[in-house]
Amino acid sequence: MFLVGSLLFHGFIVVSAVTAGLYALVLRRVAPARLLPFGQAWARLALWVLRVVCGIKFEVTGLENLPVGGVILAAQHQSAFDTLVWFTLLDRPSYVMKQELRAMPIVGGLLEPAGQIAIDRAGGATALRALIEQVRAAGVAGRQVIIFPEGTRVAPGAEVALQPGIVAIARATGLPVVPVATDSGRYWARDAIRKRPGTIRIKLFPALPAGLDRAAMLEALHEAFYQRGVS
């Protein structure tokens, strides 16, 4: 039975993304400022369908730790769920995303106009400087920037070395960094067909000052992700 619900959810994602994307192409021309709110509405609908059809819910604690204005959320990345949920929780989210996503049919060309930030992960120092400038501009505009310091999806319970770019970005922009732990458990496997009913838990920790040195910043994030977690 659950496999049927999972397949239905996948079908919804494909059909609704194409339909919404075509409408958003029109918005990009006539009302570009509405692109982000429209995308947020679609994300809320997608997570509602996920709950109703697949029985997967989520709960969030620590939102009181989110400063007003520009901020960096340094979040764990365990599944595709992470790429949707912040559209529903934040007023003006800006995901740092791999530039390959710009090549997605229909939707790819809408991400940057909606305020998302693309990065060339193979671009080295040049790409990092460009990213810093974009994050700085987003912070000045009062946006919440979501970065995944793990660099890719990491299975629940696994640990990886965190990417140090988050330290350079925080120090250069002066933005506070909020660590975010996630526990998808068995409820959202890397292979989404294997999802199981349950609750995904998200926890925001108190903000770290932007001026922390590399070792202290990475140690604080590692502790939040892998030692303290959402418990």
TrEMBL record:
The chain crosses the membrane at residues 6-26. One of its GO terms (molecular function) is 1-acylglycerol-3-phosphate O-acyltransferase activity. Residues 71-185 form the Phospholipid/glycerol acyltransferase domain. Signal peptide: none annotated. Keywords: Acyltransferase, Membrane, Transferase, Transmembrane, Transmembrane helix. It holds the Pfam family Acyltransferase. One of its GO terms (biological process) is phosphatidic acid biosynthetic process. This is 1-acyl-sn-glycerol-3-phosphate acyltransferase.
